[in-house]
């Protein structure tokens, strides 16, 4: 059964929000301070450029997966290199997700539990979910979307009583173009993961009208992050805000309300954990498709355990060198590498333009 167009909208809301709403806010507060809204808006709009190129490449063969027709555009071996590059990106990204799980649960709820044990359990869940395929993952995101939407409204209502709106003028009067441009590039790497769209073609036919829904998806994620950033700034300020690893969770815990709304942190943790599982599972699913194409085999599920083990291994190495993990995770160079991978559709779109134009001229 194929996923619908609006399911794709809800899926990408969960896919992007699993990262941006949790980890991007303190990074932007630490680097851009009061002008973070500029970086968020410009970076997300730049991410929509990657969406346009990705959609354009997908529309070249709307009934066929990019892993299959890519070689007709770029050539066999360059296409295989791009698959290998994307494969490495997926595995490495999942290792970040696993390590984030370990750092949060290991330090808050599972103290004393060996990191490797937590990583193995998380890896097994990711492995099983990835083996179910994109359609099942999309339905999981579909079920989570409504809970996520309601939870965001609840969180924003918890933020408002403690927010200092006297800080709003500082958002307008403080500007540094150099920092804003640099942080916009970093935000673009968070909002530019649209290359994964190329892997939904077998389950969902790409059509021109779908682009509008995906643009709306990007705008919705931007609004959510922008509101979260502004309320975090007005509640904790730029100095404390950048030190908070989980701003939304800290807001719930610092809430003065003793009722049900003031004790929603378990629900928030559950939503974040579920969205992260969806994010990681889909990346492993994509990596398995890449390996299957590299070796010209149809059974992509058989590679999922090996890819998950590779991510667990990288996460385990990071858990033994936490300093290196934070250095890499917050590195601007890593953000640039992320953008190089996320810009793969641009390489195909430009090559297809010149190749098809030359054929037409002949």
UniProtKB/TrEMBL annotation:
Show the InterPro entries listed in the entry.
Answer: Spore_GerAB
Q: Which Pfam families match?
A: Spore_permease
Instruction: List the keywords (alphabetical).
Output: Germination, Membrane, Transmembrane, Transmembrane helix, Transport
Q: What is its main location?
A: membrane
Q: Name one GO cellular component term.
A: membrane
Membrane-crossing ranges are 12-31, 37-60, 81-96, 116-137, 144-163, 183-202, 214-236, 267-288, 300-319, 331-354
Top-level taxon: Bacteria
Statement: the UniProt record of this protein carries the keyword Transmembrane helix: yes
Topology in the membrane? Answer: Multi-pass membrane protein
GO terms (BP aspect):
spore germination
Q: Where in the cell is it found?
A: Membrane
**UniProt keyword Transmembrane, yes or no:** yes
Q: Which family does it belong to?
A: Belongs to the amino acid-polyamine-organocation (APC) superfamily. Spore germination protein (SGP) (TC 2.A.3.9) family.
Q: What is this protein called?
A: Uncharacterized protein
- Organism (species): Paenibacillus etheri
Upper classification of the organism: Bacteria, Bacillati, Bacillota, Bacilli, Bacillales
């Amino acid at each position: 059964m194929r996923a619908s167009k609006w399911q794709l909208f809800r899926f990408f809301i969960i896919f992007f929000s699993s990262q941006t709403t949790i980890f991007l806010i303190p990074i932007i507060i630490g680097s851009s301070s009061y002008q973070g809204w500029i970086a968020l808006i410009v970076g997300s709009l730049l991410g929509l450029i990657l969406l346009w190129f990705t959609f354009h490449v997908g529309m070249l063969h709307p009934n066929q997966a990019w892993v299959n027709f890519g070689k007709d555009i770029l050539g066999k071996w360059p296409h295989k290199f791009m698959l290998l590059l994307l494969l490495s990106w997926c595995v490495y990204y999942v290792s970040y997700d696993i390590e984030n799980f370990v750092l949060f649960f290991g330090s808050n709820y599972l103290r004393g539990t060996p990191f490797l044990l937590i990583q193995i359990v998380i890896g097994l869940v990711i492995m099983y979910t990835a083996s179910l395929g994109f359609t099942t993952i999309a339905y999981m995101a579909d079920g989570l979307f409504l809970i996520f939407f309601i939870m965001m409204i609840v969180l924003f209502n918890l933020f408002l009583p403690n927010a200092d709106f006297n800080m709003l003028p500082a958002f307008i009067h403080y500007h540094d173009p150099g920092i804003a441009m640099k942080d916009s590039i970093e935000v673009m790497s968070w909002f530019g993961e649209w290359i994964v769209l190329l892997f939904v073609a077998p389950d969902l036919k790409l059509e021109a009208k779908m682009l509008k829904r995906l643009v709306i998806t990007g705008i919705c994620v931007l609004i959510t992050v922008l509101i979260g950033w502004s309320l975090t700034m007005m509640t904790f300020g730029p100095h404390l805000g950048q030190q908070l690893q989980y701003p939304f969770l800290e807001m719930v815990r610092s809430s003065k309300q003793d009722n049900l709304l003031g004790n929603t942190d378990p629900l928030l943790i559950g939503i974040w954990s579920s969205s992260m599982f969806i994010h990681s599972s889909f990346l492993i699913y994509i990596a398995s498709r890449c390996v299957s194409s590299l070796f010209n085999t149809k059974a992509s599920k058989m590679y999922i355990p090996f890819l998950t083990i590779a991510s667990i291994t990288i996460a385990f190495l990071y858990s033994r060198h936490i300093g290196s993990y934070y250095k890499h995770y917050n590195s601007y160079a890593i953000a640039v590498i992320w953008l190089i991978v996320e810009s793969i559709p641009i390489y195909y779109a430009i090559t297809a333009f010149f190749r098809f134009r030359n054929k037409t001229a002949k």
